[in-house]
Amino acid sequence: MASHIVLTSHPRGSGGKQVSAVNWGAASAAARGPLVAGLAEPARRNVIGTHSGSYAVYRALAVAAGNLQRDHRPDLTNTVPAAHIGPHPQWGEPGRIVSLDPWGHRVAQEFAAEIAAGMDIRPTIAVTTAHINMPELRDAIEAGRLVPDGDILEASGDVRVTKAAIDPVWYLPGVAERFGIAEHALRRALFEQTGGMFPELVTRPDLKVFLPPIGGMTLYFFGDVSLLGRPETRVACRVHDECNGSDVFGSDICTCRPYLAHGIEVCVEMAQQGGVGVVIYNRKEGRALGEVTKFLVYNARKRQRGGDRAETYFERTECVAGVQDMRFQELMPDVFHWLGITRIDRWASMSNMKHGALTAAGIQVVEQVAIPDALIPADARVEMDAKVAAGYFTPVAPPSVTELALAKGRGLHA
Ligand SMILES: [Zn+2]
Predict the structure, then answer these.
(1) One GO molecular function term (predicted)?
(2) Which of 5, 34, 287, 298 is the most buried (most CB within 10 A)?
(3) How many whole angstroms from 374 Cα to the centroid of ligand 1?
């Protein structure tokens, strides 16, 4: 085990080992080339950052504590995807996908020879199967909105799903282009705002791919995944941004879990009709501001003079965070290109920003499905009114100015 520290901030002699070029957006995995982020051989690395996003810090702790060999490599035996996804034509269209590696789930197959020859190449996507069961789906069965079919949906409420976990992989020139900014400006901001965690962002302009230390996304598929990419396949979809308080703990201040459950219901229905349902769950807690900021905003909303109301909903967030929202939907359509989806027949979301991003990316949204009013918790009216007033999709008239000024949220100790 080497005891010296190897800096990766400047190119070094390769010591006979070839650093493979990355031809992002190439039509085949072989032409694109492997992404090498392994730390054991710094000279072979052709990306900035390491695998597993923010979990890299736990890996560091495990190594420091002596529980993990610093040069451990995963044994990928039997880990290949449980369902076929792609390749789709979009994978080889320049600029289509810039925030994930379309070949990320096929690494063990596509680069088998390189891995066997000793290169450290790891999957950034994993695809498996599962059964899920949520009380809301059992309610939907009881209310007669969903009918068990014994295949996709059991009478017990069990739903058969395929799911995929995706770590972000950013092609920096493509990300910069998506935001209409210069690559060097993006690299500099990333370097500075991470406290200098990744010097290569500014010292290695030759390295174009970055594994950002952020959460990725989880996809839940309902129905036959292999039907995706065919023009005749009908698709239902919910793009959901993480809200731990509501999604997991059932907090009633927002509509997140009710909307997620409703989205799943729409997806199950579509699968039962022979189409495919997809729920895309993004790890962007609290509009990508994080839970600490989110809870500070809750306090500011509830303590403000006049009480918690829709007219100041976005203002309170901006006071604490400096922005109303940090989710930036510009990169969101990438996953649809990865899945070969060009049309969404039923879209279970009210967000005009998400809708706009999809349309701008050339993905057609046929029908926008609003959440039934009966599924919205009383305390979440503040959020719903504020969003509808700000341009969110609604099948009914948006709330009036007087309506928005009414305190509808409960107080801090109510
Ligand atoms: Zn929420």
Answers:
(1) GTP cyclohydrolase II activity
(2) 34
(3) 17
